[in-house]
Amino acid sequence: MRAGRLRQRVTIQDKVVTQNTFGEEVITWTDYLTAWAAVEPLRGREFNEQAMAGAELTTRIVLRWPGTLDYRPEMRAVHAERLYNVRSVVRVDERRREVQLLCTEVLPGG
What we know:
It contains no helices and 6 strands. The protein starts with 7 loop residues before the first strand and ends with a strand. It has one domain (3-108): Thrombin, subunit H. 0% of the residues lie in helices and 68% in strands. The protein is mainly beta. It has strands at residues 8-19, 25-49, 52-64, 76-79, 82-91, 98-108. The radius of gyration is 16 Å and the shape is globular.
């Protein structure tokens, strides 16, 4: 993998689910890893489903292999104050060099 391709700083966050005193789930996000990455928009669409208008952007985030760490679909990525929900994790060629996170960013109001 060429290092020049990885020009954006991305923070991967992990979801932590706890319960409050009323027994309700409380979701918080903790930083898991900050790394250099390539953020590549792939496809966008606008929608109006059940009176919820918005837009969705599909993005690929390419990172170096994380070593002993691992990425999971319930994580999210933060780049330039934008949030990306990780939908799938692609371990390219299973060669332990590159990982691609296929993500969606939902933009309210499209």
